[in-house]
Structure formats: C-alpha cells, structure tokens
Specification:
mainly beta, 3-stranded antiparallel sheet, 1 helix, 9 strands, about 5% helix, elongated
Length: about 100
C-alpha cells in the first residue's frame, strides 16, 4: 500500500515497523494457527528494503511541500506471505496488526 511520509525539515525520516505476534513478530493468527509474513518498505528514492521488526531504518522523503503529499503517496509498504506458509494454513479468518511509526 502507498503511504505519505512527510518531513518539513530535511526530507529524511526514520521508519520502525512492529507486528502483533510474540516479540512483535510480523504474524497473523486465527487463534489456533499463526502465519509469519515479511515486510518490505520503499521510500521515494530506491527499491524495497526488507524490514526487521523493531529495527529503525532511515529513508529520504521526496521533496514535499504539503504534509499530505498533495493527496498522493511517496512510499510503499509491501507485505508478503510465502507460498509454503499459505499452502500449510487452514482455511480460516486471520488477523494481525502491523504498526508503522514514522519519525523525523
């Protein structure tokens, strides 16, 4: 999904992602089964970077003049599940939370 990451000082920001699993792992659960997933983040200048839960990474924001990026996005978050994890999962409703913290 696309996000707007705005900083009005030096066009740099730090992002920290955490999941809702044990030790803040990136997981979803149906109450009986837990499935892990990977998270990648892409700032406005560069490709996707693999993120580790709780580890802050620095990115550059594109030169934004509006705190809502003019209604556009300038960064992307990609969540992926492996085919093996999905194949092993039982049919059910899964839920989890991915917390995104963006700081200047």
């Amino acid at each position: 999904d696309g996000v707007c990451a705005y900083d009005n000082s030096n066009n740099r920001y730090t992002i920290t992602l955490t999941g809702s699993g044990a030790a803040n792992a990136f997981t979803v659960t149906n109450g009986a089964q837990t499935i892990g997933y990977a998270v990648r983040f892409s700032g406005s200048t560069g490709g996707f970077v693999v993120m580790t839960t709780g580890v802050s990474r620095n990115f550059r924001a594109s030169n934004q003049t509006q705190n809502n990026c003019g209604g556009a996005t300038n960064a992307q978050i990609r969540v992926t599940f492996t085919a093996a994890n999905l194949a092993a999962a039982e049919a059910a409703t899964y839920s989890g939370t991915l917390t995104v913290l963006i700081q200047p």
